[in-house]
UniProtKB/TrEMBL annotation:
Part of the 30S ribosomal subunit. Contacts proteins S4 and S8. Residues 21-35 have a biased composition (Low complexity). The N-terminal domain interacts with the head of the 30S subunit; the C-terminal domain interacts with the body and contacts protein S4. The interaction surface between S4 and S5 is involved in control of translational fidelity. Residues 1-10, 49-83 have a biased composition (Basic and acidic residues). PANTHER family: MITOCHONDRIAL RIBOSOMAL PROTEIN S5 (PTHR48277:SF1). GO terms for cellular component: cytoplasm; small ribosomal subunit. Belongs to the universal ribosomal protein uS5 family. This is Small ribosomal subunit protein uS5. With S4 and S12 plays an important role in translational accuracy. It comes from the Bacteria. GO terms for molecular function: rRNA binding; structural constituent of ribosome. Keywords: Ribonucleoprotein, Ribosomal protein, RNA-binding, rRNA-binding. Residues 1-83 are annotated as: Disordered.
Amino acid sequence: MMADENKNEDTQAAETKVDNAGSTPTPTTASTEAADNQSAEAGGQPQQREGRGGRGGRGGRDGGGRGRGRGRDRDDRRNRGDDDGEELIEKLVHINRVSKTVKGGKRFGFAALVVVGDGKGRVGFGHGKAREVPEAITKATASAKKKMIRVPLKEGRTLHHDGRGHFGAGKVNVRSAPAGTGIIAGGPMRAVFESLGVHDVVTKSIGTSNPYNMIRATFDALTNQSSPKAVAQRRGKKVADLLGRGGASEAEAEAAAEAIAE
Protein backbone atom coordinates (compact mmCIF):
# COMPACT_ATOMS: atom_id res chain seq x y z
CA MET A 1 0.00 0.00 0.00
CA MET A 2 2.78 2.41 0.87
CA ALA A 3 4.52 1.66 -2.42
CA ASP A 4 1.32 2.42 -4.39
CA GLU A 5 0.84 5.73 -2.62
CA ASN A 6 4.43 6.73 -3.39
CA LYS A 7 3.93 5.89 -7.09
CA ASN A 8 0.78 8.01 -7.27
CA GLU A 9 2.56 10.96 -5.66
CA ASP A 10 5.47 10.64 -8.11
CA THR A 11 3.06 10.46 -11.08
CA GLN A 12 1.17 13.59 -9.97
CA ALA A 13 4.41 15.50 -9.53
CA ALA A 14 5.62 14.54 -13.02
CA GLU A 15 2.32 15.66 -14.60
CA THR A 16 2.55 18.96 -12.74
CA LYS A 17 6.07 19.54 -14.13
CA VAL A 18 4.93 18.79 -17.69
CA ASP A 19 1.99 21.18 -17.43
CA ASN A 20 4.21 23.93 -16.08
CA ALA A 21 6.81 23.39 -18.81
CA GLY A 22 4.27 23.30 -21.72
CA SER A 23 2.24 26.30 -20.72
CA THR A 24 3.35 29.76 -21.78
CA PRO A 25 2.63 32.65 -19.48
CA THR A 26 0.29 35.20 -21.01
CA PRO A 27 1.61 38.77 -20.76
CA THR A 28 -0.64 41.17 -19.01
CA THR A 29 -1.90 44.42 -20.46
CA ALA A 30 0.38 46.47 -18.27
CA SER A 31 3.50 44.58 -19.37
CA THR A 32 2.49 44.88 -23.06
CA GLU A 33 1.95 48.65 -22.80
CA ALA A 34 5.31 48.98 -21.06
CA ALA A 35 7.03 47.10 -23.89
CA ASP A 36 5.32 49.38 -26.44
CA ASN A 37 6.44 52.47 -24.57
CA GLN A 38 10.04 51.20 -24.44
CA SER A 39 10.06 50.49 -28.19
CA ALA A 40 8.57 53.94 -28.91
CA GLU A 41 11.25 55.62 -26.78
CA ALA A 42 13.95 53.63 -28.60
CA GLY A 43 12.76 55.07 -31.95
CA GLY A 44 10.70 52.13 -33.15
CA GLN A 45 6.98 51.80 -33.71
CA PRO A 46 4.69 50.13 -31.18
CA GLN A 47 3.43 46.74 -32.18
CA GLN A 48 -0.14 46.63 -33.41
CA ARG A 49 -2.37 44.33 -31.41
CA GLU A 50 -5.26 44.44 -33.83
CA GLY A 51 -4.43 41.16 -35.56
CA ARG A 52 -5.93 40.91 -39.05
CA GLY A 53 -7.66 44.25 -38.74
CA GLY A 54 -4.32 45.95 -38.06
CA ARG A 55 -2.76 44.42 -41.18
CA GLY A 56 -5.76 45.48 -43.23
CA GLY A 57 -5.53 49.02 -41.91
CA ARG A 58 -1.79 49.15 -42.58
CA GLY A 59 -2.10 47.91 -46.18
CA GLY A 60 -5.57 49.15 -47.09
CA ARG A 61 -5.94 52.49 -45.30
CA ASP A 62 -2.40 53.87 -45.42
CA GLY A 63 -0.79 52.09 -48.37
CA GLY A 64 -4.01 51.95 -50.37
CA GLY A 65 -4.60 55.64 -49.82
CA ARG A 66 -1.15 56.50 -51.14
CA GLY A 67 -1.72 54.29 -54.21
CA ARG A 68 -5.06 55.89 -54.96
CA GLY A 69 -3.53 59.34 -54.64
CA ARG A 70 -0.82 58.59 -57.23
CA GLY A 71 -3.34 57.16 -59.66
CA ARG A 72 -5.63 60.15 -59.25
CA ASP A 73 -2.78 62.59 -59.97
CA ARG A 74 -1.83 60.64 -63.08
CA ASP A 75 -5.43 60.76 -64.39
CA ASP A 76 -5.62 64.51 -63.74
CA ARG A 77 -2.47 65.10 -65.75
CA ARG A 78 -3.83 63.05 -68.58
CA ASN A 79 -7.09 65.00 -68.56
CA ARG A 80 -5.27 68.31 -68.45
CA GLY A 81 -3.17 67.25 -71.43
CA ASP A 82 -6.19 66.29 -73.50
CA ASP A 83 -8.39 69.18 -72.41
CA ASP A 84 -6.59 72.08 -74.10
CA GLY A 85 -9.63 74.34 -74.42
CA GLU A 86 -10.82 73.24 -77.87
CA GLU A 87 -13.62 70.92 -78.90
CA LEU A 88 -12.59 68.24 -81.35
CA ILE A 89 -14.84 66.46 -83.81
CA GLU A 90 -14.23 62.72 -83.78
CA LYS A 91 -15.64 60.52 -86.52
CA LEU A 92 -15.32 56.76 -86.71
CA VAL A 93 -14.73 55.83 -90.35
CA HIS A 94 -14.19 52.09 -90.36
CA ILE A 95 -13.87 49.09 -88.04
CA ASN A 96 -12.27 45.89 -89.24
CA ARG A 97 -12.58 42.59 -87.38
CA VAL A 98 -10.05 39.83 -87.83
CA SER A 99 -9.91 36.38 -86.25
CA LYS A 100 -7.09 33.99 -85.52
CA THR A 101 -7.81 30.30 -85.05
CA VAL A 102 -5.95 28.86 -82.08
CA LYS A 103 -6.12 25.61 -80.17
CA GLY A 104 -8.94 26.75 -77.92
CA GLY A 105 -11.06 28.34 -80.65
CA LYS A 106 -10.97 31.73 -82.38
CA ARG A 107 -9.28 34.86 -81.09
CA PHE A 108 -10.81 38.10 -82.41
CA GLY A 109 -9.13 41.47 -82.88
CA PHE A 110 -10.43 44.85 -84.02
CA ALA A 111 -8.87 47.71 -86.00
CA ALA A 112 -10.44 51.18 -85.96
CA LEU A 113 -9.93 54.12 -88.32
CA VAL A 114 -10.77 57.52 -86.82
CA VAL A 115 -10.70 61.09 -88.18
CA VAL A 116 -10.33 64.00 -85.74
CA GLY A 117 -10.66 67.72 -86.48
CA ASP A 118 -11.42 71.02 -84.79
CA GLY A 119 -13.73 72.33 -87.53
CA LYS A 120 -11.44 75.35 -88.03
CA GLY A 121 -8.83 74.10 -90.48
CA ARG A 122 -7.06 71.32 -88.53
CA VAL A 123 -7.61 67.63 -89.18
CA GLY A 124 -5.85 64.31 -88.60
CA PHE A 125 -6.45 60.59 -88.90
CA GLY A 126 -5.20 57.54 -87.06
CA HIS A 127 -5.82 53.85 -86.62
CA GLY A 128 -5.50 51.54 -83.65
CA LYS A 129 -5.70 47.82 -82.97
CA ALA A 130 -6.92 46.03 -79.85
CA ARG A 131 -8.89 43.04 -78.61
CA GLU A 132 -11.92 45.23 -77.85
CA VAL A 133 -13.62 47.90 -79.96
CA PRO A 134 -13.57 50.76 -77.40
CA GLU A 135 -9.86 50.30 -76.76
CA ALA A 136 -9.13 50.28 -80.51
CA ILE A 137 -11.11 53.51 -80.97
CA THR A 138 -9.25 55.13 -78.07
CA LYS A 139 -5.88 54.24 -79.60
CA ALA A 140 -6.93 55.50 -83.02
CA THR A 141 -8.19 58.80 -81.58
CA ALA A 142 -4.97 59.38 -79.68
CA SER A 143 -2.95 58.66 -82.82
CA ALA A 144 -5.10 61.07 -84.87
CA LYS A 145 -4.62 63.90 -82.36
CA LYS A 146 -0.85 63.55 -82.64
CA LYS A 147 -0.85 63.78 -86.45
CA MET A 148 -3.17 66.73 -87.07
CA ILE A 149 -2.30 69.09 -89.94
CA ARG A 150 -3.47 72.60 -90.76
CA VAL A 151 -5.15 73.29 -94.11
CA PRO A 152 -5.71 76.87 -95.37
CA LEU A 153 -9.37 77.58 -96.09
CA LYS A 154 -10.92 80.25 -98.28
CA GLU A 155 -13.37 82.37 -96.31
CA GLY A 156 -13.38 79.58 -93.74
CA ARG A 157 -15.74 77.43 -95.81
CA THR A 158 -13.97 75.94 -98.87
CA LEU A 159 -10.58 75.23 -100.43
CA HIS A 160 -8.49 77.87 -102.15
CA HIS A 161 -7.94 75.87 -105.34
CA ASP A 162 -8.46 72.48 -106.95
CA GLY A 163 -6.13 69.61 -106.18
CA ARG A 164 -5.37 65.96 -106.67
CA GLY A 165 -4.21 63.32 -104.23
CA HIS A 166 -2.68 59.93 -104.77
CA PHE A 167 -1.76 57.06 -102.49
CA GLY A 168 -1.34 53.49 -103.67
CA ALA A 169 -4.34 52.62 -105.82
CA GLY A 170 -6.37 55.53 -104.41
CA LYS A 171 -6.78 58.71 -106.45
CA VAL A 172 -8.98 61.65 -105.47
CA ASN A 173 -9.88 65.00 -106.99
CA VAL A 174 -10.94 67.93 -104.81
CA ARG A 175 -12.41 71.20 -106.09
CA SER A 176 -13.41 74.43 -104.42
CA ALA A 177 -17.10 75.36 -104.70
CA PRO A 178 -19.26 78.46 -104.26
CA ALA A 179 -21.33 79.05 -101.15
CA GLY A 180 -24.36 76.81 -100.80
CA THR A 181 -22.87 73.84 -102.65
CA GLY A 182 -22.37 71.69 -99.59
CA ILE A 183 -20.04 68.73 -99.17
CA ILE A 184 -20.24 66.60 -102.30
CA ALA A 185 -18.29 63.63 -101.02
CA GLY A 186 -18.98 60.18 -99.77
CA GLY A 187 -17.63 57.70 -97.32
CA PRO A 188 -14.29 58.45 -95.69
CA MET A 189 -13.78 61.69 -97.62
CA ARG A 190 -16.94 63.22 -96.16
CA ALA A 191 -15.72 62.51 -92.64
CA VAL A 192 -12.44 64.30 -93.41
CA PHE A 193 -14.08 67.47 -94.75
CA GLU A 194 -16.71 67.60 -92.00
CA SER A 195 -14.01 67.37 -89.34
CA LEU A 196 -11.90 69.93 -91.20
CA GLY A 197 -14.69 72.51 -91.21
CA VAL A 198 -15.23 72.71 -94.98
CA HIS A 199 -18.82 73.56 -95.95
CA ASP A 200 -18.57 73.70 -99.75
CA VAL A 201 -16.47 71.25 -101.75
CA VAL A 202 -16.81 68.86 -104.68
CA THR A 203 -14.78 65.64 -104.62
CA LYS A 204 -14.38 62.52 -106.68
CA SER A 205 -12.66 59.25 -105.77
CA ILE A 206 -11.10 57.30 -108.61
CA GLY A 207 -9.73 53.82 -108.08
CA THR A 208 -9.80 51.86 -104.86
CA SER A 209 -12.58 51.98 -102.29
CA ASN A 210 -10.25 51.01 -99.45
CA PRO A 211 -10.97 53.59 -96.71
CA TYR A 212 -7.33 53.68 -95.57
CA ASN A 213 -6.02 54.50 -99.04
CA MET A 214 -8.85 56.94 -99.73
CA ILE A 215 -8.12 58.94 -96.58
CA ARG A 216 -4.38 58.95 -97.24
CA ALA A 217 -5.00 60.17 -100.81
CA THR A 218 -7.31 62.88 -99.47
CA PHE A 219 -4.68 64.06 -97.02
CA ASP A 220 -2.14 64.09 -99.84
CA ALA A 221 -4.41 66.50 -101.72
CA LEU A 222 -4.96 68.66 -98.63
CA THR A 223 -1.25 68.95 -97.83
CA ASN A 224 -0.70 70.38 -101.32
CA GLN A 225 -3.16 73.21 -100.67
CA SER A 226 -1.63 76.68 -100.44
CA SER A 227 -3.18 80.08 -99.77
CA PRO A 228 -2.47 83.34 -101.63
CA LYS A 229 -0.85 84.67 -98.48
CA ALA A 230 1.66 81.79 -98.39
CA VAL A 231 2.42 82.18 -102.11
CA ALA A 232 2.93 85.94 -101.72
CA GLN A 233 5.34 85.42 -98.83
CA ARG A 234 7.26 82.81 -100.78
CA ARG A 235 7.59 85.09 -103.81
CA GLY A 236 8.23 88.26 -101.81
CA LYS A 237 5.11 90.04 -103.08
CA LYS A 238 1.84 91.34 -101.70
CA VAL A 239 -1.42 89.43 -101.85
CA ALA A 240 -3.05 92.31 -103.74
CA ASP A 241 -0.38 92.05 -106.45
CA LEU A 242 -1.21 88.39 -107.04
CA LEU A 243 -4.98 88.95 -107.09
CA GLY A 244 -4.74 92.01 -109.34
CA ARG A 245 -3.14 90.11 -112.22
CA GLY A 246 -6.49 88.70 -113.33
CA GLY A 247 -7.69 92.06 -114.66
CA ALA A 248 -9.21 93.31 -111.40
CA SER A 249 -8.62 96.86 -110.27
CA GLU A 250 -6.25 97.72 -107.45
CA ALA A 251 -9.10 98.51 -105.04
CA GLU A 252 -10.85 95.23 -105.78
CA ALA A 253 -7.59 93.31 -105.36
CA GLU A 254 -6.94 94.90 -101.97
CA ALA A 255 -10.50 94.21 -100.83
CA ALA A 256 -10.17 90.58 -101.91
CA ALA A 257 -6.80 90.31 -100.16
CA GLU A 258 -8.30 91.56 -96.90
CA ALA A 259 -11.18 89.09 -97.20
CA ILE A 260 -8.83 86.11 -97.50
CA ALA A 261 -8.45 84.21 -94.25
CA GLU A 262 -6.20 81.31 -93.50
